[in-house]
Amino acid sequence: MTDRFIALIPVLNGAVSLGGVVSACVPHIDQVLVVDDGSSDGSGEVAAKAGAKVLRHDVNRGKGAALKTGFQWAIENGYAGVITLDADGQHLPEEIPEFLTAHRQTKADLIIGSRDHLFGGMLPRRRRANMFSAWTISFASGKHIPDSQSGYRFYSARLLKKVRLRSNGFDMESEVIVRAGRHGFKIHMIPISLGFVDGQSTSHYKPLKDTLRIAWTVAKALVRP
User: Which residue in 22, 86, 16 sits closest to 53, CA to CA?
Assistant: First the structure.
């Protein structure tokens, strides 16, 4: 039986860009799943019209919670892996096959689309925040992770079944790297391109506050199994 994979897109009020992202994913993957995390702009309806399966949170619960809802659905429906990407057009769906090829070739359980070769195009405060987070998470996970904040990733079902994720915010994406590394799962990086590289176009990331939040999440992941 051939392994099946899904593209998972969490969204909060991303109707303007979401339809195009879903449509561009459809030719490259077995299933597109959108988790509408309490949107008020009709994002779920847009996603369904573009060809996605849609799950909805009635209230906003956070990016991590939306991803975990999608992960659970993928596991329950027998998918072998999940590729996550953002709804804003930053991640290019035509690069999905590169993640699948990397998984076949390396057997890695977590593959991160790295933007470290593009950090020079980011605003300085965002670049410094990314570099600090990457150093912190590399130390905690025992793996060299040049870009720890990229949301364009492949997760194997094996990893998702084994690793318990506690965070519900965007810091869950940092937590999972630490837990994957400490459980001995293989982590691999591949370079990706971006629809935009300044790190701010649609981001709500607050460099100081959110970097500290990531550091706290990483610390908790080190002491809690």
Answer: 22
